[in-house]
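Subject: design request, 615 residues
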C-alpha cells in the first residue's frame, strides 16, 4: 500500500490566515493531513499551497534546484568578472552537477516530485469532494509536475518518469523502486499530457481574482505547454529540424494565444511600469507572488531590489546585475534598426544612449541619465571616472567608490523608483521589496508563437507578433509599418530577428542563457570573450571648475561631447579566464551521486555513457 505523504505542518496558522489573505504570499506553508483533507477543499488548498511554495521560481527565473537562469550566465552581465563559473569556463565534471536529486530529500527535484505525486494520489482517491473542485486542485498539481520535469529535461534530456509516490524506505524498498531513464520524447509527451489535463480543468479566470492572484489558470498551463514544446522543437532537441516538432509547438502556442486573448490578456501599455501592477495585470500569465512584509511568519521578499540597486543607494547589499556593453549595443535605434544600420538616426559609441529603443532607457541606467532611484524626481546618475590631481589616480564619483559598476551601467528594470512605481519602496528598506515575478508574461506568449510560426513557415504571423511587441515598446512604425524589421525575411533571418527581440525584451529576466542554449549558440556568442571594459572619464582640461555643481542642469549631449571620453577595451572586463563553453554542456552529465544511487541510470553519451538525449 502506498504511503500517503502530504505534509502536515503549520495547519493551524494557515487556517487562521486563509480567511483574510492569500496563502500564496506566505513562506510558512504546509500541507494538510490526508485524513483531514477528505471532502474538504479548504484543507486541500492548504496542502496544494505547499506544492506552490516548493515549486514557484524565484526572481529572474532561477529555481531552487538548477540555480541557473540569472544574467551571470549570459552576455547581459559578466557579474563584475570576479566569480568562477565552471559552466562558462568549460571546467565542469559530473561531480560538479548536483541538480538531479541524489538523496532522499524533500527539497531536491525528486523530493518535490514525490510531494506532487502524493498530493495527486491522495486527492485522486478522495470520494467525498465535489469533482469540479477536486479536478481544479489536481490540475494545478499536474501543472507543477510538468514544470518540475521540464526543469530536469532541459538540463539532462530524458529522466526517470516517476508518476506515483514510491515507498523508498529501507534497502529492500529502495532496490524495488530503481527506475531507469525514460527517453526524452517520452518525457515531453508526459509533460504535454499533464499540461493538457491542467488546461482541461482549470478556469480561464479565477473567481475573486484578488484572493486567487498567483493561482495557475488555463492560460498559464497552455503557455507553459507552448514553452515546453518550443524547446522540443529547438535545435538543442531537434538538430535535424523535424517539421512535425515545429508543428506541434505551433499548435500549442496558438492554443495558448487564443485562450489568453479570449480571457483578456494583452501587452501592458507601459513597458517600464508593468512590474508594479499585480491583480488585474494583463501581461501576467505565470507569476510568483512576493510581499513587502518584515515579519518572520509572513515574509516573502524578492531580493531583486536590494541586490540590483547601486550599493550606495541602499544599506542592504546591491551593485549586482551590471549591464554589459554587449547588452547596450544590442538595443536597436528608435526606428527599430540596429545601431549603424539606421538612415534616420546616427549611432556613435560616444553618444551610445541617444535615440535608442525606448526599452533601453527603461532597462539600463547610465552615466548622466535621469533616474529617481533615491525617489528624487529629477535625480541624475553619475558614474564617470575622474582624475585626482593630488594622487594622479582616477577614482569613481559614485559616492566613495563603494562596489561601483565596472561598466558604468546599472540595471533599472523592475526597480521601484518614483518614475515607474506608484508607491516606491524607501531606499533603506529594499530588502523588503514585494514586487511579483512574472515567469511567463504575455510578451513571451507572442514571441513563442512567432518563433513556432516561423518554424512552420508562417512568416506573416511571425511578423504580426514581432510588430506588436515592438509597437508596445515605443519603436517607430516607419513608412512601411514594419517597426524597423527587414521586409521579406527568410526563415533563418526571422529566427534570428526573434532571438534579437527576446534579448532586449526579456533583458535580466533569465531567458537569454536558455535561448542561446536551446539554439546551440553559446559557443558562437561567448567563447573567447571576457567582456568589454567601459570607462567614461571626465576630461582633465576644459572642464568648468563648478562642473559638479552645474552638471545636473546641462544637456546630456553637451556633457558627453565636451567633457567626457568613452574608452572601450575589448576583453578587458573579466579577471577570470575567457568563456569556453563546451558542446557537451548542451546536455549536462547525470551527477555521479545519482549514478551511484541507482544502477539503472545510464550516463549521457556525450559524457561517457550510452544514453542518447536526442531520442
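Subject: RE: design request

Done. Sequence follows.
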Amino acid at each position: 500500500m502506498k504511503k500517503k505523504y502530504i505534509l502536515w505542518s503549520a495547519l493551524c496558522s494557515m487556517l487562521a490566515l486563509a480567511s483574510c489573505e492569500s496563502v500564496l504570499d506566505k513562506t510558512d506553508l504546509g500541507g494538510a493531513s490526508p485524513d483531514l483533507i477528505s471532502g474538504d477543499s479548504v484543507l486541500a488548498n492548504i496542502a496544494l499551497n505547499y506544492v506552490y511554495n516548493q515549486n514557484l521560481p524565484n526572481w529572474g527565473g532561477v529555481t531552487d534546484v538548477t540555480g541557473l537562469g540569472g544574467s551571470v550566465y549570459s552576455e547581459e552581465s559578466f557579474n563584475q568578472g570576479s566569480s568562477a563559473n565552471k559552466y562558462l569556463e568549460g571546467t565542469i565534471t559530473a561531480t560538479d552537477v548536483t541538480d538531479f536529486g541524489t538523496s532522499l530529500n524533500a527539497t531536491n527535484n525528486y523530493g518535490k516530485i514525490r510531494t506532487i505525486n502524493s498530493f495527486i494520489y491522495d486527492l485522486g482517491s478522495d470520494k467525498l469532494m465535489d469533482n469540479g473542485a477536486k479536478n481544479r486542485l489536481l490540475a494545478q498539481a499536474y501543472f507543477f509536475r510538468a514544470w518540475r520535469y521540464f526543469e530536469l529535461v532541459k538540463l539532462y534530456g530524458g529522466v526517470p518518469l516517476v508518476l506515483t509516490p514510491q515507498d523508498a524506505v529501507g534497502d529492500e524498498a529502495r532496490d524495488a523502486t530503481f527506475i531507469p531513464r525514460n527517453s526524452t520524447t517520452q518525457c515531453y509527451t508526459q509533460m504535454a499530457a499533464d499540461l493538457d489535463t491542467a488546461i482541461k480543468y482549470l478556469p480561464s479566470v479565477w473567481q475573486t481574482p484578488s484572493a486567487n492572484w498567483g493561482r495557475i489558470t488555463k492560460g498559464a498551463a497552455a503557455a507553459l505547454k507552448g514553452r515546453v514544446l518550443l524547446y522540443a522543437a529547438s535545435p538543442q532537441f531537434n538538430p535535424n529540424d523535424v517539421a512535425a516538432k515545429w508543428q506541434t509547438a505551433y499548435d500549442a502556442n496558438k492554443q495558448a494565444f487564443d485562450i489568453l486573448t479570449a480571457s483578456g490578456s494583452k501587452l501592458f501599455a507601459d513597458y517600464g511600469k508593468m512590474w508594479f501592477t499585480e491583480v488585474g495585470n494583463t501581461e501576467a500569465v505565470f507569476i510568483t507572488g512576493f510581499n513587502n512584509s518584515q515579519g518572520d511568519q509572513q515574509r516573502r521578499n524578492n531580493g531583486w531590489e536590494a541586490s540590483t540597486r547601486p550599493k550606495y543607494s541602499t544599506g542592504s547589499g546591491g551593485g549586482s546585475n551590471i549591464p554589459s556593453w554587449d547588452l547596450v549595443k544590442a538595443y536597436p535605434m528608435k526606428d527599430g534598426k540596429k545601431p549603424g544600420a539606421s538612415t534616420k538616426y546616427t549611432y556613435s559609441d560616444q553618444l551610445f544612449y541617444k535615440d535608442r529603443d525606448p526599452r533601453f532607457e527603461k532597462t539600463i541606467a547610465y552615466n548622466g541619465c535621469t533616474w529617481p532611484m533615491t525617489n528624487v524626481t529629477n535625480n541624475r546618475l553619475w558614474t564617470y571616472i575622474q582624475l585626482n590631481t593630488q594622487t594622479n589616480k582616477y577614482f569613481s564619483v559614485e559616492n566613495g567608490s563603494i562596489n561601483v559598476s565596472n561598466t558604468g551601467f546599472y540595471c533599472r528594470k523592475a526597480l521601484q523608483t518614483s518614475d515607474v512605481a506608484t508607491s516606491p519602496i524607501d531606499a533603506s528598506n529594499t530588502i523588503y521589496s514585494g514586487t511579483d515575478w512574472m515567469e511567463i508574461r504575455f510578451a513571451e506568449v507572442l514571441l513563442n508563437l512567432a518563433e513556432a510560426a516561423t518554424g512552420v513557415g508562417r512568416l506573416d504571423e511571425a511578423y504580426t507578433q514581432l510588430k506588436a511587441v515592438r509597437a508596445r515598446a515605443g519603436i517607430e512604425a516607419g513608412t512601411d509599418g514594419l517597426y524597423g524589421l527587414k521586409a521579406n525575411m527568410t526563415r533563418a533571418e526571422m529566427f534570428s530577428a526573434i532571438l534579437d527581440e527576446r534579448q532586449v525584451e526579456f533583458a535580466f529576466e533569465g531567458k537569454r542563457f536558455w535561448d542561446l542554449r536551446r539554439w546551440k549558440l553559446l559557443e558562437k556568442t561567448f567563447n573567447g570573450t571576457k567582456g568589454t571594459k567601459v570607462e567614461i572619464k571626465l576630461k582633465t582640461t576644459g572642464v568648468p571648475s563648478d562642473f559638479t555643481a552645474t552638471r545636473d542642469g546641462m544637456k546630456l549631449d553637451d556633457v558627453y561631447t565636451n567633457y567626457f571620453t568613452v574608452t572601450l577595451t575589448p576583453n578587458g572586463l573579466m579577471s577570470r579566464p575567457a568563456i569556453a563553453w563546451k558542446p557537451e554542456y548542451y546536455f549536462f552529465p547525470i551527477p555521479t551521486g545519482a549514478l551511484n544511487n541507482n544502477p539503472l541510470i545510464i550516463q549521457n553519451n556525450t559524457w561517457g555513457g550510452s544514453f542518447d538525449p536526442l531520442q
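The CA atoms of residues 279 and 578 lie 44 Å apart.
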